[in-house]
Write a structure and sequence with these properties.
Elements: E1 6-10, H1 15-24, E2 28-32, H2 43-50, E3 61-65, H3 70-79, E4 84-87, H4 93-103, E5 107-112, H5 116-120, H6 122-125, E6 131-135, E7 166-168, H7 177-184, E8 188-191, E9 196-198, E10 201-202, H8 204-216
Parallel strand pairs: 1-2, 1-8, 2-3, 3-4, 4-5, 5-6, 6-7
Antiparallel strand pairs: 9-10
Helix pairs in contact: 1-8, 2-3
Bound molecules: ligand LARABZUK.
Amino acid sequence: MTGRVQVKICGINDGATYDAACQAGTDYVGFVFYPPSPRAVTPEQAAMLAARAGTGRRPPNVGLLVDATDQEIAEILRSAPLSLLQLHGQESPERCAAIRERFGLPVMKALGIATEADLALMEAYAPCVDRFLLDAKPPRGASLPGGNATAFDWSLLSGRAIPRPWMLAGGLNPANVASAIRATGAEAVDVSSGIERARGVKDPVLITAFIAAAHAA
Ligand SMILES: O=C(O)c1ccccc1NCC(=O)[C@H](O)[C@H](O)COP(=O)(O)O
């Protein structure tokens, strides 16, 4: 790996968290547009957060969507200034391509990884997406398709060529992110639960520790 590992802080839903993430040097800000999530924001809330000027930095905003319709995406984009769409549902390669084409934004497809067969799916998606987010599958009975503090077997990625730029996600936290980067060669990491003091409530101290650990790896 060359250069500094990039970090995405996902599920930002209040001003103090936005400021802490920016001050600590996050490379991406993630907004969850999935109403059942405790981390969800409205497009208007995302717009207000993204307009905060206090930190002097405004990293690119990533919009997390779960099987959203064109109408829902258009509604979100009317208010929220997004640079990248993270598709975290059951979107097919064709649906990813259609969203990318229709909205003119790069797409990052989240894939749940548990076996080699899951990784093989990347070949079908690669022509239709700009990035991958390789995450754990939701545990049995989980109410959310992501953000469940669950890691997958990182050794599946060891020495593996990934056909697009990608982020590692799933169960990362300040204590394990350096090991995860070493084990997988990830050039970018994404975190939500591992920097929370309660579900949906981020902790600025953990945010700072996570970004420092990832950048030092
Ligand atoms: O965070 C949510 O509430 C969420 C809801 C629906 C789909 C995905 C969701 N989160 C995804 C993420 O935050 C991350 O991209 C990834 O799954 C890592 O989450 P975590 O294991 O909590 O760090």
